[in-house]
Amino acid sequence: MRRNQGKSADAFKRISALMMIIVMTVTAAGCDQITGGREPANASEQLQDAQGIQEETAESDIENLLETVTTDISDETGTSNNEDALDTQSEHQLTDDFPEGSAGMYAGTLELVDDFIESQVEYGFSGAQLVVIKDGQLVKDKAYGCVNGYRQDLSRIMPGDTEYKKVTTDTLFDLASNTKMYAVNYALQYLVTQGKVDLDTKIADVIGQQFVDDTIDITYPDYVNPGLETNKSWKSSLTIRDILRHQGGFAASPHYDNDRFDQKIQKLTDIDGINILYSGSDGSMETRENTLEGICRTPLMYEPGTKTLYSDVDYMLLDFVIEKITGERLDDFCSRTFWEPMGLKHICYRPLDNGFGKEDCAAEELNGNTRDGNVTFKGVRTDTIQGEVHDEQAYYSMAGVSGHAGLFSNAEDLAKLAYLMMDGTYSGKEYFSKDVIDEFTTPYGNDDSWGLGWWRQGSGKDRSRYFSESAPADTFGHEGWTGTLTMIDPDNKMVIVLLTNRKNSPVMVNGTKLNEFYSDDFLLGGFGTVPQLIYDSFMKNSEQVDNELCDIASSQFDKAKKRVGRYNEEPYIDNAASCEDMLITRAEKQNGNASAALKECAQKGCDRLSGIAADGVKSEAQEERLNGYIKDFETRISKL
After folding, report:
1. Taking residues 482-494, what's their average pLDDT?
2. Residue 277 vs residues 262, 365, 418, 476: alpha-carbon distances, Å
C-alpha cells in the first residue's frame, strides 16, 4: 500500500533508488531482478517504493519509472495537491492501474458521505460498499454496516451480537440487473469490437428457427392479440439491437420459474400448474435449457419498435445468443475475456461454487423468496438468501447464470470494470473500440434516457433519482433491484459504484403488494443522495453543502409525517431520524464553528420529529424508539 507521508526526504530517497536502477539496468541487463528486501508480485509491477522494483531493460519502461516517481514526489512534497483535498491514505490494497488520490475532491464533503451512510446503517440499513474512481485515481473505497442485518423473525442484528459480521471491501454483493451491463453488454461490446457480432443480426438466425416456429398463442391483458402468424412474423424479424433497446415486444417477466403465474392475466395466483410457460424451479442446467425453449414459445406482447418495455426476458435471451455465438457459457466467457486478464478476483456468478462462503457475501431477503411468508410456489427457498442470486428466474430457471441477473462482485472490481467505458482500455489492452462505446451509449429516437441497454441521465434528468440532479446528461449506468448502482460520468471521468443489500430487511406488506422492503424507504435505498454528495465534493463551499443537507433532511421529515399511521411509517420515521443525526453530526464535527443556520436546521429537525411523535405513531415500539431518538438529539443539540 502506498501512503502519502508528505516527507521530501522520502522523495529524494526514491530519486536515488531510481538512479541506481537506471545505472544497474544499463550495466547489468542480464540480471533477473533488482530487489531490496522483497520480491515483486508479478512481472508487470511498477515502482511502489524504494524497495522492491523489478528490472525492465526497455527505455520506455525507464521513462515510466521516472514518470511514476515524479508523480509520487509531487504528491509527497505537496506541490500539486490542494492542502484541503482528501487525505490519500486507504485501508485497502491499491492497484497500479488506479493509484489512490484526491482528484481535487474535498475531504470534508467526502467524509460527509461516510457520515450519511453510517447514519443510515445505525438507524436500520444493513450494509453497503462505495467506490469512487475519478481521473484514474481511486478516491474512495469504503465498506459500511453488516452482511446480514436481520434475523428471520425480523428482529435486528446489532453490533455486539454473535451473528453480527461487518461488511468489508472484499464482501460480494448480488448485482441484480447490473448484470445486464457488465455481463451481456460487455460481452456484446467486446464481440462487436472484434467483428464477431453484428447488432442487426436476427435472433432467429442465431437461436434457430424454433425461436419463431415454437411460438404459442397468448392473449395478454390490455393488449390486442395480433394473431399467431403475425406474432411469428414479428419474432422472425427481431434483431439483437431490438432486444438491447427493450423494444423487442416481450412482457416484463413471464416467470418461467413459477408454476402459479398466469400468463393470461400476467399475475401470480394460488393455482398450481397454471403457468403454460413454466420451465422448472430446481435450478438445474436441464431446467436452464427448458427456459430457452420457453422463451422460444413465448409470444410477443406488442409489435417490436413501437414502445419501450423493460424486460428481463430480453437479457435472458441475449445470454443464450452470446452462448450460441461463442460456444461458451456466459460466466466462462466473461471470466476468460474480462475478469482473468484484468486480475479481478472478487467477481463471479454462483460464488458458493467459486471459492466463496456465505459469510463472504452480503445477505438478501430474510425468508427466501417468500416475502416473509406471504408467497409460495414449487421449490421456493425459505432460508435467508446469502451467496445465491436473489432473482427468482435467475436462480430457479437459469441455474444461477443469466444475462439479466446472477453476477456478484465487490465494489472495487466492479468499478474497475466500469472504468473500461471511459476509453475501452485497461492496462494498455483494448476491450472496446471508441466507436462501439459510442454506439452503445448514444441515445436513439426521441428518448435520450436510453442507450443500448444502458440507462442515461438524459437532457430531462430522467435518471436523477438514481444519478442525482448534478449528473451531466451523458452520464450512464444501471440500477439493480437488490440495491446496487453503477454510474459512469465521462464528462468528469468519474465512476461511482454503490452496492447495498437493501432487500435484507423486513417486507412492508401492503395488501397484495409485496415488493416494498423496509430499507427501500431509506434515502440510501433510493441511491441519489450519495452521488449528489459526491458531486458536492467538487466544490469547497461548506455553507452551500449545509444548505443542501438541510433541504434533504426537511424533505424526509415531510415524508415521515405523511406516513404516520400507515403500513410503512416505521422506515420513513427511522430514515428521518437518520437525517437528523447526520445534521447534528455535521455540526459536531465543526468543533464549535458550526454555522447558526446549521444549528437552527438541526433544532427544527428535532422539533419536527417531536411533532411526528405527538401525532400518534401507529407502532408502540416505533413510538418508544422515536422518543429515545428525540431525547438523544436534544442533548446533543444543547452541546453545539
Report:
1. 98
2. 9, 26, 35, 34
d(CA 463, CA 498): 15
Ramachandran quadrant class, 158 (left: phi over 0; alpha: psi -120 to 50; beta: rest)? beta
CB atoms within 10 A of CB 425: 14
CA proximity to 279, closest of 334, 315, 316: 316
Contact 322, 341 (CB under 8 A): no
Place 44 in a pLDDT band, splitting at 50, 70 and 90: very low
For residue 280, how many other CB atoms are within 10 A of its CB? 21
Q: Judging by beta carbons within 10 Å of its beta carbon (0-12, 13-18, 19+), is residue 306 exposed, middle or buried?
A: exposed
pTM value is 0.85
**Residue 38: other Cβ atoms inside 10 A:** 11
Q: Please state, in angstroms and rounded to a whole number, the distance separating the CA atoms of residues 438 and 431.
A: 14
User: How many angstroms separate the Cα of 341 from the Cα of each of 333, 335, 407?
Assistant: 12, 8, 18
Q: Identify the residue whose cell numbers are 446496487.
A: 484
| Beta-carbon contacts of residue 417 (< 8 Å; ≥ 6 apart) | 182, 186, 338, 342, 344, 347, 409
Calculate what percentage of the chain has a pLDDT beyond 70. 85
78: left (phi over 0), alpha (psi -120 to 50) or beta: left
Coil, helix or strand at residue 507: strand
Half-sphere exposure of 76 (CA within 13 A, CB side): 19
468 secondary structure, DSSP code: -
Query: Residue 237, exposed/middle/buried by CB under 10 A (0-12, 13-18, 19+)?
Result: middle
Distance CA 579, CA 549 (A): 9
